[in-house]
Write a structure and sequence with these properties.
Two copies of one chain form a homodimer. With 149 residues, the first copy, chain A, is α/β, with parallel strands linked by helices. The first copy, chain A, contains six helices and five strands, in the order αββααβαβαβα. In chain A, helix 1 packs parallel to helix 6. Chains A, B: It holds the Pfam family dCMP_cyt_deam_1.
Chain lengths: 149, 149
Amino acid sequence: MTDPFDDTYFMKRALQEAEAAFEKGEIPVGAVIVIENRIIARTHNLTELLNDVTAHAEMQAITSAANFLGGKYLNKCTLYVTLEPCQMCAGALYWSQISKIVYGASDVQRGFKTLGTTLHPKTEVVSGILAEEASALMKRFFIEKRNLN
Amino acid sequence: MTDPFDDTYFMKRALQEAEAAFEKGEIPVGAVIVIENRIIARTHNLTELLNDVTAHAEMQAITSAANFLGGKYLNKCTLYVTLEPCQMCAGALYWSQISKIVYGASDVQRGFKTLGTTLHPKTEVVSGILAEEASALMKRFFIEKRNLN
């Protein structure tokens, strides 16, 4: 029997968050943080609404998960995020000592892999989960935005 | 006549913030953001109090300054921070398009220079302003912490 709580299951939840961002006119990136198969944070990008470049989905998820856990380290947690984290978010994930990062689409321009951001040595990284869906949502967002302007 | 509002003047204000962090048992890092010689954000590290690895002085300063300005870009602003920013903070400063970063002490282990974080091409960087004072405060903090444990 396959595990119902696999990476695809949780990435679908992150994609739902990305769709919520899309509906608000935000660049559609969503994230969830999971501990022992339980979602403890669900967030999406809010940089426009909050007028704040630090309001990426991952940053909010880190704050929210730490708040839930009552401690600032996330070393038993997994982050699912629809887009490859940027330098800022990867830098925050470094401090959080998160156990695992699973992302969907790659960000070849501004992703932490291209820019060489250092993660915590204990952090495992998995990429490409539901990447096409995440990427298609991003493309749709930018096409609609261009057509509106 | 010398300019009373030089880098040392504003770094002293950032050092006062670092001292406020020290008093709260936080790693003593302070920051101010300035636009046209006016301080629009004063913050200090609150990672312990808030249980949040993202609560560095710079991150709060970016959010606070953007809130004051009513817009998320800080391209006419200067950040003064007592310690060299980390990857996360430098990544956030990249997104903010801040005009200038002035820091005091270097962080040779976890600073953005060592770790190679990319800043916005328009961002100027000045270092070493009141570096000894900032560094002495950090050392005093870690000595006192060690003696308490």
